[in-house]
Records
---
Amino acid sequence: MMRLLLGASVLALMAAPVVLDAAGPKAANIDAARLIGARNEPGNWMTHGGSYSEQRFADLTAINSGNVAGLGLAWYTDLDTNRGQEATPLIIDGTMYTTTAWSKVVALDAATGRVKWRFDPQVDKARGHSACCDVVNRGVAAWGGMVFVGALDGRLIALDAATGKVKWSTVTVDQSKPYTITGAPRVVKGMVLIGNGGAELGVRGYVTAYDAMTGKKKWRFYTVPGDPAAGPDGEASDDVLKTKAGDSWSGDYWKAGGGGTVWDAIVYDQELDQLFIGVGNGSPWNHQIRSAGKGDNLFLSSVVALDPETGKYRWHYQGTPGETWDFTQTQPIILSTLMIEGKPRKVLMQAPKNGFFYVIDRETGKLISAKGFVPQTWTKGVDMATGRPIEVPESRYLKDGFLMMPSALGAHNWHPMAFSPRTGLVYLPSQEVPFFYQTDKTYGFKPGAWNIGVNTVINAPPTDAAAFKALKASLKGALLAWDPVAQKEVWRAQYEGPWNGGALATAGNLVFQGNGGGTFQAFDASTGKNLWKFSAQTGVIAGPVSYTVGKTQYVAVMAGYGGAYPLTAAFDERAPAQNGRLLVFRIGGTAKLPPVPKAVYAAANPPSETFTEQQIATGAEIYEGNCALCHSSAARASGLLPDLRRSAVLADKQAWEDIVHGGALKANGMVAFSAWFTKEQLEAVRGYVGEKAKKLAADEKAGR
Ligand code: CA
């Protein structure tokens, strides 16, 4: 449910004289030469990862390990929601372009924070139901005087960078299906590239290239085969799906779409003129259900190299054949040249959900090395002869359940990692989150609903206080400084909660990173020594950037707690009451955030009716498989969305029915669940949440 829009106020509390825009006659005047030569313009941040190699390395030294202690807030901008903020801003010739939750775009003066224009694509809030992991957006791309945003509802929209007016807009998905876009587009050779998400609900993944000037489709690559009865797609992927991928699937795999969404990494290799896409998990997750337990299911959980002109397949590396754990391989990809055994090798580096840090030869697609960067219960390592993981057989949960580490939330999720060519280290936001995998025996495909084929009830946090405490303590996160040549950890910053933010490395020998606990920090890039910290008053999960306007270097980050973990599994970690912000820092900055408003929580509000054990069990099945994705498992909500245990609606049978079954609040994003469940079933959900509210009321009374 959305909070009221707070009028966005912009404070420009600059002590130093305002530096005027260095902009030329045209805003976002980006072309191929500028993107290819991005390293010659370290003061700009012109594409998602900072340059085509996506190293997130700012070659700037005005802010450095010697003076970072003097870093202060230069200005900030309040955002209009407490939902997650995951965008990496672009900075082009003194103007910043960033996106916020619900796919909104804002252009600001990068030195002062003065808003130049705003754009709201007016996404239907009901689309939020199809977003597995919050209504987030990870940023824009720029080209030829335009910026491009992928909207949550599947539109790709080109905006005039000077005015924010729509130049063109095209629908990139079948909007009758639960597709979403949260990822940042990339522009390569005058084409805008965009993928999509939705593999938890049931879609077929692909990436599409559009002409940047006109929005006309150039090519599309499907990552998994479609229904054989429908014949070829007439797309760039037809040949390879027939010759390579088709035989790796079994059963009625197309019924739930197969998955394989390209929801984050899309990286252009300017040295070898090829494109890398990171491909997501299967739909449903469970390989037994999806593909009769047979086959590698290409190109799920893979990096695929494509010809950028045609979209045709070149090679692939699949980290998790026969994916059955939501092991996406969409995670950020970094390109570099590393000296390996005395020879320079053009490599790509990726640390996907399955917990392996991969170094892959970009020229051949051959795996150079792979090493686990978190504890892994499912594997004994990678067989370097085949490139395949050596699986622990029980991990496939064919008969019994299996406690996996890492799991669906990932050893590393979308949070951008950074690489410093100076230290040779990768700065990797890692997570340790277990999950107990067991087949959902009640599974039946429900179009548009959550369809994973895995038992979610068994993963609800325990009611017993000691067991709950132990579970919470087992969820950890750390920023790892990782040597990709030696494949070993060099230092770490350890956090209590798992959800830690994107990283930025700079030539000032610094690493900047935020965390879910609300601290934005700078570390010595070589040693990990903490050199500076700032209380952001909300979780910081996005990737920071650095840039210059005139001679002044700035560091910027989007602050706003959200995404999969806070919505689903934060387990009573109370999210801050206020909305997110864009924070911008410089040496000597003196701006101050206002005090945090005191959060006020309603008391637990259990219904007066009694429910049968059967009702509560039915309610648990439905709640944990559908409602928990936003309102949190066991209703232990983080407060980003309403805590149902404290809701007035919970005690009111009719109001509950009107909203949950009837869709009375669908304008806020709470869709009608009558599409999938009866009134009686949804009343049973009220019984389950009511039990949790009773427990909360008892805990509150006892002062627990
Ligand atoms: Ca997924």
---
Amino acid sequence: MDKLIITAAITGAATIPSLSPYLPMTPEEIANSAIEAAQAGAAIVHIHARRPEDGFPSSNPDHFREILTKIKAKSNVVICVTTGGSAMMTVEERAAVVPAFKPEMCSFNMGSINFALHSALRYLKEFKYPWEKAYLEMSKDFVFKNTFKDFDYLCEITQANQTKPELEIYDVGHLYNLDHLVSEGKMKPPLHLQFVMGVLGAIRGTPEDLTYLTTKAQVLFGADNFTWSVIGVGAAEINLSTMAIHMGGHVRVGLEDNIYIGKGKLAKSNAELVEKIVKLAGMLGREVASPNEARTILGLKGPDKVNF
Ligand code: KMH
Ligand code: ZN
């Protein structure tokens, strides 16, 4: 079994600032949080940017540049940049980071889903910034669009920039979308799958759902042709991580996906969530991969070939 690759998702479009005071907001905070997560054991950090003044999701290359250069100056961690962005962005805006920065990895969302965040309105009554309430309300009518045309565009730019796609699989149909791209020769194994489980609008985070996704992926692609990791959004994070550690998969945790370290207790940092996974891996007898070991496992081009 490969060593365990831990990814830390530092701050994301689905996590609005009012949910947790510990969410990194400015480029400096995001970079520092990523560096601490790497020190705690993350081999990869997944990066979104925010407008420093109010935390609104940003596609501004200057915000990304500041984050990426600050992380690279202090850490050897693998940087995986989002192309998922947020609900307000076109696919071209979301993916502009790939040609601009030529990162080692980027996210590649494998299908369209409802991506609903409005259930947070049941308990969240006070907001730090004016945009947050409308953002949650609007998500009730939001389709996260990732069409076959979008896939073609992302395939072109990831290949042109030697950026390894982290294939975000939110539901079983997304495996079939990917299988279609493989059959057309547009996507070439070895593939790296990231099962995103627990978004309202897609598959839930139950043990049988993860078993089904991993089994289906083996049937479609062959066990030797892919690596996989799991994101348990919200409450499912630690349970699904435990399953993945045991099954030979990899794990992503972080404040983008889950803000709690225990029942009702907010995580104070991304590093705290990573530390919990490192402890779990130790208890289950699985060694944790360093960034360079993750590069070997995933076949990445290396930090000397990025553009930042
Ligand atoms: N926020 C996660 C549920 C992306 O950035 O492209 C999914 C995600 C997608 O991380
Ligand atoms: Zn993301």
